[in-house]
Design brief:
four-stranded mixed sheet, globular, 37% strand, mainly beta
């Protein structure tokens, strides 16, 4: 095999930008989605997941980004863009999950951090958006 990285001088971190990500353990008590059931059923299952992670996306200057997640079965990302310095919550289902963010300009640096694991009923975050 030809070593593409070496032939094209693609060695080094500048050639391999990183997506900011956080890994979160699933809530083993949460209901599982069922691919054999309707979209309405699965939407209700997701709404039943009370455990949430409060996340924050930071950057040195305002940066547009997309949010994504990965489980053992799928990798998805949001079509809508968001803008940094944003704090929001995401529901935690039964499976372990990795949330990640990537900037519109893939070379921009952004950070993703977990602020707290709580519930969707936490009064402290009553005005926070839930994605």
């Amino acid at each position: 095999m030809r070593n593409f990285k070496l032939e094209n001088n693609l060695v080094g971190e500048e050639n391999w930008p990183k997506f900011a990500s956080v890994f979160l353990s699933g809530n083993r008590k949460a209901l599982h989605l069922d691919v054999l059931k309707s979209q309405e059923y699965n939407d209700a299952v997701v709404e039943s997941w009370e455990k949430v992670a409060v996340l924050r996306v930071l950057a040195p200057e305002k940066t547009k980004f997309h949010l994504g997640f990965a489980t053992k079965k799928s990798v998805q990302y949001s079509n809508p863009e968001f803008e940094t310095d944003l704090k929001f919550a995401v529901r935690l289902g039964p499976s372990d999950i990795n949330f990640f963010v990537f900037p519109e300009n893939i070379k921009d640096k952004i950070l993703l951090e977990v602020v707290e694991i709580t519930t969707d009923k936490d009064e402290k975050y009553k005005d926070l958006i839930l994605i």
